């Protein structure tokens, strides 16, 4: 089973969203230094590294993932990436490719906002010099907020009337209004709890005015679309000073509450150069350098004679990347961006097996020590129960025949047990009928 959740790249035109997708997946999305190069969303698969249980059980030589790969106990789990059309100020009112872009977002579980930190493109994505990107994080968030708030407010009066008449729970009424954004009721309840704890809005939604609705939408978005900000184009001359200014704005104040500013916190900002990563990957593929995504340096033929020799021009470009990106920031930042995005959701890796003696995918001879182990790994949301996972894995039909589950040591699992990493996340299901 491939990953079922989606990381979406958002940002103004020419920020580098498609370059990012190309840098971390095998996609070949069109890249161009003019706005709206992308119209239809591009998709690709990136890999999230985690510790594979094959290492703990001494089975690394038999670990054969069906999707992704495993290298000496480091498992690379596939994650879906989507790159959508650029967003410009006024998009929520239909400017640019506005609403179409926003609709694509409904499928995303987490957002990576790619910001052009170099100051060489204005807010429309057009080439310029000395543009200050300090407000880019804010206006993009405002557009998304405006889009959702506009839709919710349009239905508000009717919903509140029905809410009063039926005496429904506040979470049910609000869920009805935001379910279209792929939100579960539980998430709406959490948003309400957060609002209540801040004491800024009445607990009776029948009393809410437009300001309260907007406040709710803000908290809802923080929960529904956790966001990593990638300050991109760090290889460019002005990036440094722009990055420093943006970091200052989002610096957490010690002792303050945990509410986000513009949907962002300092911990979720990553520095990146999608272009450097694309270039390094290309040269590694062609045999000029040895380099793996996430590395802090590369190897050339000078250190390893088996690599192809490079010409002066390529050499200069590589030296530039080494000086401006790798030495200065420790990596190109693209792998780190994927990791931060997945970590934001707190996903739990689950390894479904048919056989708890050899961790194989077939229920045959339990004592067999041959064949592949830990073939499947699925990332699930925190709080997922054993039964919910069974349903996700085997479709509803099998869910009816659910007859229990066990983990390592043949320990029985309850249907409502929450799956936790390194505790009960290697699971064998029993099916009746
Ligand atoms: N210097 C530098 N240029 C970059 C980087 N990432 C992207 N670019 C350049 O920025 C331009 C726009 O890149 P795209 O990836 O097409 O941008 P996009 O955000 O997908 O743009 P739209 O599809 O128009 O919304 C291209 O010329 C890229 O080569 C980077 O890290 N550094
Ligand atoms: Mg694009």
Offer a concise description of the structure.
The chain has 433 residues and is of the alpha/beta class. It has helices at residues 17-24, 53-56, 98-104, 136-166, 170-178, 185-198, 210-224, 239-249, 274-285, 312-329, 334-345, 386-400; strands at residues 6-10, 42-51, 69-71, 74-83, 110-116, 227-232, 269-271, 348-353, 378-380, 402-407, 411-413, 426-431. The mean pLDDT is 89.
Keywords:
Helicase, Ruva Protein, domain 3, 433 residues, P-loop_NTPase, five-stranded mixed beta sheet, seven-stranded mixed beta sheet, alpha/beta, Rossmann fold, binds guanosine-5'-triphosphate
Structural class: alpha/beta
User: Please, what is the CATH homologous superfamily of the largest domain?
Assistant: P-loop containing nucleotide triphosphate hydrolases
CATH fold title of the largest domain: Rossmann fold
What is the count of DSSP helices, taking H or I runs of 4+ residues? 12
Keywords: Nucleotide-binding
Pfam family, one: YGR210-like_G4
GO molecular function, one term: GTP binding
Protein name: OBG-type G domain-containing protein
Describe the structure.
The protein is an alpha/beta fold and 433 residues long. The chain folds into 4 domains: 6-133 and 224-274 and 334-343, 3-Layer(aba) Sandwich (Rossmann fold), CATH 3.40.50; 145-223, Helicase, Ruva Protein, domain 3, CATH 1.10.8.470; 275-329, no CATH class; 347-431, Roll (Ubiquitin-like (UB roll)), CATH 3.10.20.30. 36% of the residues lie in helices and 16% in strands. The chain contains 12 helices and 12 strands. The strands form 2 sheets. Strands 1, 2, 3, 4, 5, 6 and 7 form a 7-stranded mixed beta sheet that branches. Strands 9-8-12-10-11 form a 5-stranded mixed beta sheet, covered by helices on one side. The chain starts with 5 loop residues before the first strand and ends with a strand. The structure holds guanosine-5'-triphosphate (GTP) and magnesium ion (MG). Magnesium ion is lined by residues 17-18, 37-38, 83.
């Amino acid at each position: 089973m491939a990953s079922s959740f989606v990381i979406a790249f958002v940002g103004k035109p020419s920020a580098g969203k498609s370059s990012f997708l190309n840098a971390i997946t095998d996609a070949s999305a069109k890249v161009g230094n003019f706005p709206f190069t992308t119209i239809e969303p591009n998709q690709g698969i990136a890999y999230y590294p985690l510790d594979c249980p094959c290492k703990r059980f001494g089975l690394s030589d038999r670990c054969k993932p069906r999707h992704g790969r495993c290298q000496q106990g480091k498992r690379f789990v596939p994650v879906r990436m989507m790159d959508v059309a650029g967003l410009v100020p006024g998009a929520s009112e239909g400017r640019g490719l506005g609403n179409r872009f926003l609709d694509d977002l409904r499928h995303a579980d987490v957002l990576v906002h790619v910001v052009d930190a170099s100051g060489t493109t204005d807010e429309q994505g057009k080439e310029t010099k000395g543009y200050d990107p300090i407000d880019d994080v804010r206006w993009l968030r405002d557009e998304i907020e405006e889009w959702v708030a506009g839709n919710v407010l349009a239905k508000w009066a009717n919903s509140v009337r029905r809410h009063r008449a039926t005496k429904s729970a506040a979470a049910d009424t609000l869920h009805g209004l935001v379910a279209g954004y792929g939100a579960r009721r539980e998430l709406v309840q959490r948003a309400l709890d957060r609002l209540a704890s801040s004491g800024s809005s009445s607990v009776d939604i029948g009393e809410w005015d437009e300001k309260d609705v907007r406040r709710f939408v803000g908290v809802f978005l923080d929960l529904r679309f956790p966001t990593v900000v990638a300050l991109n184009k760090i290889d460019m001359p002005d990036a440094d000073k722009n990055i420093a200014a943006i970091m200052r704005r989002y610096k957490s104040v010690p002792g303050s509450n945990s509410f986000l500013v513009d949907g962002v916190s300092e911990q979720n900002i990553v520095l990146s150069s999608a272009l450097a990563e694309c270039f390094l990957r290309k040269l590694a593929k062609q045999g000029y350098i040895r380099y793996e995504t996430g590395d802090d340096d590369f190897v050339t033929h000078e250190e390893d004679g088996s690599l192809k020799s490079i010409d002066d021009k390529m050499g200069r470009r590589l030296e530039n990347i080494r000086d401006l990106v790798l030495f200065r920031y420790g990596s190109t930042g693209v792998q780190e961006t994927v990791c931060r995005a997945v970590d934001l959701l707190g996903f739990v890796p689950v390894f479904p097996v048919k056989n708890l003696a050899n961790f194989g995918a077939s229920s045959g001879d339990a004592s067999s020590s041959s064949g592949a182990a830990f073939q499947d790994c699925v990332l699930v949301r925190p709080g997922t129960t054993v039964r919910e996972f069974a349903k996700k894995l085997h479709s509803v039909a099998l869910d009816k025949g659910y007859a229990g589950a066990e983990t390592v040591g043949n320990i029985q699992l309850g249907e409502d047990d929450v799956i936790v990493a390194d505790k009960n996340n290697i699971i064998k299901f029993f099916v009746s009928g």
